[in-house]
Design goal:
single chain, alpha+beta, NADH Oxidase, 4-stranded antiparallel β-sheet
């Protein structure tokens, strides 16, 4: 698929088909695409926790997501994305390189996640990036180490419908040239 068409076609999907089969190979392909994103000094701090079994997905939705978000990712697998803290954007002595500190880890992970959701779209899957979640419950359920910052939950599945493209601002509204 042509890249511009791919990014214009991608939508946040909030309803998934009960046919939720996604192969491990497809998931690994999405994560391989994520790994191709740039990161601060090639620090590669992004990490992914994939909840694929139906039983574990139901438990995850019940224990880690508010009801509205739990419903939006029913019939999908979920991928939790994290990054290793105090590495991206930091010197070897542990001091931050600039005022953003761990913001660089979040930025790098955002680049990775963008690649992941575009690869999912290319493969015919829909995605929803979820930021409202219970990080402590996720950490406990998935045994995520304390040195990783939990950023998002990404629902991945077969869309049950095709969401409409929301209006976008005119490019000239968001650009300044000097």
């Amino acid at each position: 698929m042509e890249f511009q068409k791919l990014i214009e076609k991608r939508r946040s999907v909030r309803k998934y088909s009960p046919d939720r089969e996604i192969s491990k190979e497809d998931i690994l392909e999405m994560i391989r695409a994520a790994q191709e994103a740039p990161s601060w000094k090639n620090s590669q701090t992004g990490r992914y926790y994939c909840v694929t079994s139906k039983e574990m997905s139901e438990r995850f939705r019940k224990e880690c997501l508010p009801a509205g978000n739990a419903l939006k990712c029913e019939n999908a697998i979920v991928i939790v994305s994290t990054f290793v803290r105090d590495r991206s954007g930091f010197k070897q002595d542990g001091t931050p390189e600039n005022e953003l500190g761990n913001g660089w880890g979040c930025y790098d992970l955002g680049l990775q996640n963008a690649n992941l959701i575009l690869k999912a779209e290319e493969a015919g899957y829909g995605t929803l990036v979820i930021g409202i979640r219970d990080a402590d419950s996720i950490r406990s359920l998935l045994s995520i180490p304390e040195n990783e910052i939990i950023v998002s939950v990404i629902a991945v599945g077969i869309p049950a419908d095709e969401p409409k493209r929301p209006a976008r601002k005119e490019t000239e509204e968001i650009v300044k040239f000097f």
